[in-house]
Amino acid sequence: MNWKTDIKSYQSYLRIERGLSKNTIDNYSFDIERLCLFLEENNISVSPIKINEETIQQFIYSVSKEVNPRSQARIISGLKSFFSYLIFEDYRLDNPMELIETPKTGRKLPDTLSVEEIDALISAIDLSSNEGERNRAMLETLYGCGLRVSELVSLKISDLFFDEGFIKITGKGNKQRFVPIGNLTQKYIQIYRNEIRTHLNIKKGHEDTLFLNRRGGQLTRAMIFTIIKDLSTKIGLKKSISPHTLRHSFATHLLENGADLRSIQLMLGHESITTTEIYVHLDRRFLTEVMNTYHPRK
To answer: In terms of residue numbers, what domain contains 243?
Structure first.
């Protein structure tokens, strides 16, 4: 057994047995490959079967100088999963990660945008270009439906059920859910489809992909990040934002306007409501309003 072989079989296990997405599998693999690079740079010749806690602790110490506690915790979690797999396959009897402590990271809540800031962001889109109509439809969909960026770029025309007021989303682990879509978002998607997309020379295999680049292929996640960053700079927004900020804002605004956590959980596609509780930022002003509205001794 060697690292390359074990990583490959582990990737197959994650894909077939656990049904994880390519992005998740790539992240897990990157953590193991980082350990391999450390071993190589330090002339440590040891197999995945023989590596011990002391060597891994040296690696974690080395990593801690380069990354923040949150990234460090993710690396430790990824390695624990890998060695647990080796135990599951009877390659190892113990997990060398068992006594390695995960650093405390706290709850990092991303920036959220106000409705006015989202309006300003979308209003800054240059609609004189074909890409402008597409970008408006994409941002309205990200915010209006609370999608992950990976869910947006993989959205299909066949996933649109406008007559019923829903779109079908394929989320993490290929799990599907139906998310309500408002009339405004439907309107901008239809404008893009009828006035822009229909004139593109669509690449083979992307006929059903909703949002396309100018060459008729699927957009990358990085492209969505760039579009949002550029708009943020254009309006002079001081917050650090990403596509995920729109998803977070979607959930926060729903909650602030009276939606219940369970409904938000279903729309976001969270397996556990605990994730939704951490994800949704509740400011004190909102909590005070809830108290004053609903408590019998207000």
So the answer is: 115-292
172 counts as catalytic: yes
* Catalytic one of 74, 92, 197, 270: 270
Do both 73 and 123 map to the same domain? Answer: no
- pLDDT tens readout for residues 45-81: 999 999 998 898 888 888 887 877 878 888 888 899 8
Within this chain, do residues 51 and 127 fall inside the same structural domain, yes or no?
no
Q: Name residues of the chain where pLDDT drops below 50.
A: none
- For residues 234 and 172, membership in a common domain is answered with yes
Among the listed residues 134, 148, 197, 248, the single catalytic one is: 148
User: Is 247 considered catalytic here?
Assistant: yes
Same domain? 140 vs 281: yes
* 279 flagged as catalytic: yes
> 197 catalytic, yes or no?
no
- Residue 77 is assigned to a structural domain of this protein: yes
Considering 172, 193, 221, 229, which one is annotated as catalytic?
172
Whole-model pTM over 0.90? no
Q: Which residues contact 233 (CB under 8 A, 6 or more apart)?
A: none
Q: Considering its fold, how many domains does the chain have in total?
A: 2
Which position among 177, 244, 253, 281 bears the catalytic label?
244
